Amino acid sequence: MKALNDCYTLSNGIQIPCLGFGTYNAKGGDNLAINRMAIEAGYRYFDTASLYETERVLGQAVRESGIARKDFFIVSKLWIDERGYQEAKDAFERSLERLRMDYLDLYLIHWPRGKEGDTDWKEKDLDTWRALEELYKSGRVRGIGLSNFLPHHVDPILKNCHVTPVVDQLEIHPGYTQEAAVRYCSENDIRVQAWSPLGRSAMLEHPVLKSFADKYEKSVAQICLRFLLQKGIIPLVKSSSMERMKQNQDIFDFEISWEDMSVINNMPQNTWLGEHPDFAVPRKKSNPEQ
Ligand code: A2P
After folding, report:
1. Per-residue pLDDT of the chain (290 residues; tens, 9 = 90+)
2. 52 is catalytic
3. Please, which contacts does 6-11 make with residues 24 or more away whose CB atoms are closer than 8 Å?
4. Is the CB of 219 under 6 A from ligand 1?
5. What is the C-alpha separation between 40 and 224, in angstroms, rounded?
6. Which residues pair with 77 in a beta bridge?
C-alpha cells in the first residue's frame, strides 16, 4: 500500500481502501463540518452506523462534495436492537434513507450479542445474516460483514452461511492487538479493520511508542497507524482537525523495521477501551428515531 486510497481486494473481489475515516463521536461536535473536512483532506472511505447518528450528515457531505458516489466507499452497520430477519432489512432501508444513497459498499452487524439475557443471540445473528445475504444478492450492498465479532461469534455464521463475511471490525491498537481474533479472521479470509487505532488517544503518551516516534521522526499516531497498515489491518481513524486528518494519512513514506514491529506486537496488553462483546453492556442508542 503506497497511498491513502490504495486498495485491498476483499474475498468477494471488491476493492477496499487501506485507510478509512471513522465518523463516531467526533470530539469537535459539528459532524457535518468534520465530514466535509475529511472529504477535502482526501478520505473516501467512511465508516458510519445507525448508532453513531452520523449517516445524515455524511450523506449530505458526500452529496455536496460534487464527487461521484462511486468514488466513495461507504460502510454502515445495524445496531443490536436492529438484529433479526425483517428488522435487519428495515434497518438497511432506514440507513439508506438517512444517507440518501441507493446502495452501500459494506453493511455490517455492529455487535454479536446484547446484554445478559440475550440467550438466543446465535439464532438472532443467523436470522440477521440471512437478511444481509439477500440484500447482497439483490445488489444493494457490495459486501456484508461483521463488527466486534470474536471467533466464537463468527463461527456459527461461517458454519451456516451462503455468503461469507468479508470484514470484521475490531478494537485494535498497539497494546491491544487481539492476536487470536486476527489470526482466526485471516485463516478465514476475513479482512480485519481496526476501530480506535490510537486507543482513544490513550496510547499517544506511551513511552515505547514515543521512542519509536522519535526514531522514525513521526508522531505516535503515525506509528500506531503504520503498525496496523504493515499488519494488513485497515485503521479507521477519527479526527476533528484538518492538520491531524492530513498527518494521519502521511504514513506511506516510512517503514517500521521487523524488530520494532515485534516490540510493538509484544508490548504488555491492556484492555478494551471500548466495550467487550461478551462481558460488558454496550451503550444504548441515544435516539433510535434520529
Ligand atoms: P482530535 O479530534 O482532536 O484530532 P481513536 O480513533 O483511537 O478512538 O482516537 C480518536 C482520538 O484521537 C480523537 O480524540 C482525536 O482527537 C485524536 N487524534 C486523531 N488523530 C490524532 C493525531 N494525529 N494526533 C493526536 N491525536 C489524534
Report:
1. 999 999 999 999 999 999 999 999 765 579 999 999 999 999 999 999 999 999 999 999 999 999 999 999 999 999 999 999 999 999 999 999 999 999 999 999 999 999 778 999 999 999 999 999 999 999 999 999 999 999 999 999 999 999 999 999 999 999 999 999 999 999 999 999 999 999 988 889 999 999 999 999 999 999 999 999 999 999 999 999 999 999 999 999 999 999 999 999 999 987 677 788 887 544 444 333 33
2. yes
3. 8/191, 8/232, 8/234, 10/143, 10/166, 10/167, 10/191, 11/164, 11/166, 11/189, 11/190, 11/191
4. yes
5. 23
6. 108
Separation between Cα atoms, residue 208 and residue 26, nearest integer Å: 27
Residue to mutate (ligand 1; options 169, 177, 195, 198; most atoms within 8 A of CB): 198
Q: How far apart are the CA of 190 and the centre of ligand 1, in A?
A: 27
Grid coordinates given for 48? 458510519
